[in-house]
Every structure is written in structure tokens, then in C-alpha cells.
Amino acid sequence: MTDPNPLRRKSLTASFRSSFLTGLVVVLPIGLTIYLIWSAVGWLDGWILPLLPEAYRPEELMRDLFGPNHGFPIRGVGVVVFLVFTTVMGWIARGLIGRSILSRLDGLVDRMPVVRSLYGALKQVAETVFNKTESSFDVTCLVEFPRPGMWVVGLISTRPKGEIAGKLGPDVIAVFVGLTPMMSGFLIYVPRASVIELALSPEEAAKLIASGGLVYPQPKADLPEA
């Protein structure tokens, strides 16, 4: 027996598919954002809480307050401890005593062959990224990579220093080229004249690279559209 209203069935199917896809557009960003934040908080808790004395862990405090059957975990305590500890350490490090301690620590680490290299590299990266003593990763650009005629979006890092600067000259800059989905990338040195700076923010460039070109930033109001 044939369907007396095939157009109506197709309309219902199309409406269901359209509503489902619209729901995905709404639900996926919210759900994934909550999941990633929840996972990051749980990871930090799992790293920080074992370092606390057992009597001060959230489960034990809940048992002390509400009884032995109420030792349920509380997310976010490790994040709070990390923020407070890091802030206090930063405050101490800015003082005279803190600088003296850090100087002695650097001298001690400098005598450890393997640890010295790892600690020195991590410290230099942290100082470059967080102290912002110079502009880095603030400007996006287009650069030809991996061969002429092929353009990729990159982040301008810094000018080369030391031996690299001596070999390449003063007109060369370092550019970080990220790979989709932005899990790794390349650090390349290119002539300044061959780089085309963009008005994109680093966040917009990261979205563009991570999405494989699907999420394109909205054009700036003061820039004419092509």
C-alpha cells in the first residue's frame, strides 16, 4: 500500500534532520566546553590533591563535617590550591629573599647535567610566554611553507638570537606554523620581507588552523571585504 502523503513524510523527515543538525550546533560546543573544563579540573585535582596531607583532603573534610558516609569528592579544590600556591610563590619570588633563594636554586641546578638542560629550557619558555618582556605570538601572518606558492597561517615569535642570529642576519624572524588540529607544528626562520602580517588575532588564527579552515573569523568592521 502506497503512502497517501509522501510529500508530508519527506517534509517531516527534512524537518527532523534540520532540527537535529541545529541541535548539534547548539549542544556540541556547550557540551565539549563543559567536558574539557571538567576534565582539566579533574586532572589538576588528581595531580594536586595527593600532595596534601590526608586530613586536609576534601573527602576527609566532608567526613569530618557530615559523617563517615558523606566522603564524596569535590572538584576544583586542586585548582584553588594551585592558584593560591602559585600566587604566594610569585609574591615571595618578587622579594629579596625569594630572589636569593632562586639564585641559589639556579646555581644548584646548573651543576646537574640532565636536569640543567630541561630546567633551563622550561624556564626560558615560561619567562618568554608569561613575563611578556617582549612581543611574542601576538602577531599573525602568512608565510610560504613548505615551498613557494603554498601559504600557511603562522604566529610571529621573536627575532633569532645568539648563533642563529649571527648565521642568518638581522632581517630574519622566527615564525611558528601550527598543524591541524594544532597539536604540533614547526618553527621556521624566514626573511622579514617574505612575511605578510594579518589583522587576525592569535585566537582567531588558532581556531582557523584547528578547524582545518572550517571556522573562518568574521571580517573586521573597519576592513573592506574581498
Alpha carbon gap, first and last residue: 55 Å
Q: How many beta-strand segments?
A: 5
Based on secondary structure, the structural category is: alpha+beta
Mind describing the biggest β-sheet? 5 strands, antiparallel
Strand order of the largest sheet: 4-3-2-1-5
Give the overall form. Answer: flat
What's this, in brief?
The protein is of the alpha+beta class and 226 residues long.
Could you please describe the fold and organization of this structure?
It is a single chain. Helix 1 packs across helix 3 (77-93) and helix 3 (77-93) packs across helix 4 (96-109). This protein has 226 residues and is of the alpha+beta class. The chain has helices at residues 6-48, 58-66, 77-93, 96-109, 113-130, 162-168, 202-210, and strands at residues 139-144, 151-156, 172-179, 184-191, 196-197. It has a domain at 139-210. A five-stranded antiparallel beta sheet has the order 4-3-2-1-5. It is flat, with a radius of gyration of 26 Å.
